[in-house]
Write a structure and sequence with these properties.
The chain has 20 helices and 10 strands. The chain has helices at residues 2-20, 34-44, 59-67, 69-78, 82-85, 87-94, 105-116, 120-123, 163-184, 193-207, 210-223, 258-263, 268-286, 319-334, 337-346, 356-371, 380-393, 400-419, 425-441, 443-518; strands spanning 126-133, 137-145, 151-159, 230-231, 244-248, 253-254, 288-290, 298-300, 306-308, 314-316. The protein has a 4-stranded antiparallel beta sheet with strand order 1-2-3-5. Strands 4-9-8-6 form a 4-stranded mixed beta sheet. GO terms for molecular function: ATP binding; protein kinase activity.
Length: 520
């Protein structure tokens, strides 16, 4: 009870801050039921005077920053879900900067020593002041001394003290608010607000175990080891724990510094193409992609290779989703809109009561404008907005992994276009998509698929004796339980029969007694 009151108060506080900072202005009242339109009108009346004309940060940026680090992280997560908050809000939330003052150097050193079990001087030849700080952790530059005496620069990421307890409290409040949204606006269940909060909870919990980030870094490095235009720093496993992550230090130029990249003589067009193709290789070829590829997390090294850092937010796609993505992209590239629609139906994303042809018509309305305009005028953000409109029209439930993929694609497009404004996304995507389809859906892929199916079938056949034994044990147990239930039922019947007999005898005894008394 008290917990519910606390969460309600916290939810009211969040709503008040959003209202004061003008964050409610982004909500379209037309799509709300009458009681929520009234609540929105009351909320809008609380806006600070002139807040919409204030320069600098957007309303959502100001509100999330005021609410604290947990909500900054939540806002960054919602930036990957424009299907829920809308494209305008998602663009505002993209600008949220997860930057907070660093915690003291001494606290970081004590945590590293406690986690790694040695004095800091025994672990590193040097250990700098924080070079970057965020809501979950901060980064220090240090030096490792190899056995041959060589010094290597490394990045040491240290978890912020007490951050887990703080996020746990905020997540409980967010769960409560998601339940309230579901209760007050049942139509929002298509957007799965409760699932969104749980996805955020899983994402944050994984970010808070730096061993898992090291594992993501290691997996991505393994997947891309043969890619000549992309690389990933490797973790130092012996110097990594739940609260400390040590990895290779990256010397490079941030992709946001275009002028310096040009001054250093790097090929801007090739780099923009690498951004697009590296992302698509990760998503389609490997099914495991960096889902936070903003310019602050991407560098170009001295050899001109794209280098990524910060692997707290990753996306994963199964083979079915990868095939779906590849065929969707190829369908747009080749203007085969019925194939695009058919893929949606085969994947089960569109309910069967809708028409494939009607859906193909809606997809054509998205695709044709793309092919009527120059490459540098095509906005993937606009395409994405239209896709979300179509999903609502055809009762499609949102798929978190695909929405994250689509949103990451928009961010990647923005990064690539900042390097090469004339970049053609579709031309850049085509070699990766066609190569994967030829490899996985062509003759070789079909043979390999048949081999996997045969292997799965052989596993099933090998398991038949064990399955038969299990079924036999289950049937015996059912028989025993049925027999026991039958015996129990028999005892109940016998008891009830005896009770009925004695009740009847008692009734007759009473009746006879009454008659005797009546005739005395």
């Amino acid at each position: 009870m008290l917990g519910g009151v606390f969460h309600l108060v916290r939810g009211v506080h969040v709503g008040f801050v959003l209202a004061r900072e003008g964050g409610l202005a982004l909500i379209d009242p037309v799509e709300l039921p009458p009681h929520l339109r009234l609540a929105l009108k009351v909320g809008r009346s609380l806006e600070r005077r002139g807040v919409s004309q204030q320069p600098g940060a957007s309303p959502l940026e100001r509100a999330m920053t005021r609410l604290g680090p947990s909500y900054v992280k939540f806002g960054q997560f919602l930036a990957t879900r424009p299907d829920i908050v809308g494209m305008a809000a998602a663009r505002d939330l993209e600008r949220l900067q997860d930057r907070v003052p660093p915690f003291p150097q001494g606290v970081a050193i004590r945590m590293v020593e406690q986690e790694l079990g040695k004095p800091i001087t025994a672990l590193f030849a040097s250990f700098s002041e924080p070079v970057a700080a965020a809501s979950i952790a901060q980064v220090h530059k240090a030096q490792l001394r190899d056995k041959d005496g060589t010094l290597r620069d490394v990045a040491v990421k240290v978890m912020r003290p007490d951050v887990r307890a703080q996020f746990a409290r905020e997540l409980q409040a967010m769960r409560f608010m998601a339940r309230m949204v579901h209760a007050m606006l049942p139509d929002a269940e298509r957007l799965r607000p409760r699932e969104v909060v749980e996805t955020l909870a899983r994402s944050v919990m994984m970010e808070m175990d730096l061993r898992l980030e090291a594992a993501a870094m290691s997996e991505l490095a393994e997947n891309t080891k043969n890619d000549e235009d992309f690389r990933v720093p490797r973790p130092e496993w012996e110097m990594t724990s739940r609260n400390v992550l040590t990895s290779e230090w990256i010397d490079g130029i941030r992709l946001s510094d275009r002028a310096r990249i040009v001054a250093e003589g790097h090929d801007i067009k090739a780099l923009g193409r690498s951004v697009i193709q590296s992302f698509l290789r990760q998503a389609i070829r490997d099914g495991f992609f960096h889902a936070d590829m903003h310019p602050g997390n991407l560098f170009v090294d001295r050899d001109g290779r794209l280098t990524a850092v910060d692997f707290g937010i990753m996306g994963r796609l199964g083979m079915a989703e990868r095939r779906f993505l590849a065929e969707i992209l190829l369908g747009f590239i080749t203007r085969d809109y019925r194939q695009v629609a058919q893929v949606h139906f085969e994947a089960g994303y569109v309910p069967r009561h809708h028409s494939v042809d009607d859906f193909a018509q809606a997809i054509r309305a998205i695709g044709e404008p793309i092919h009527q305009r120059p490459a540098d005028e095509i906005s993937m953000a606009k395409v994405l907005t239209l896709l979300f409109d179509v999903t609502a029209l055809f009762d499609m439930s949102t798929r978190t992994e695909l929405v994250m993929l689509q949103k990451t694609m928009v961010v990647v497009e923005g990064v690539a276009r900042s390097l090469d404004p004339q970049l053609d996304m579709w031309t850049g995507a085509e070699p990766v998509v066609k190569s994967w389809i030829a490899r996985n859906l062509g003759p070789i892929g079909r043979i390999e698929g048949a081999g996997r199916a045969a292997l799965a079938l052989s596993d099933v056949i090998a398991d038949i004796p064990d399955i038969a034994q299990r079924i036999r044990r289950i049937m015996v147990r059912v028989d025993e339980e049925s027999s026991e239930e039958a015996r129990h039922l028999g005892r109940l019947v016998k008891t009830e029969k005896q009770r009925a007999i004695w009740s009847t005898l008692a009734f007759w005894a009473i009746a006879i007694g009454v008659l005797v008394l009546a005739f005395r």
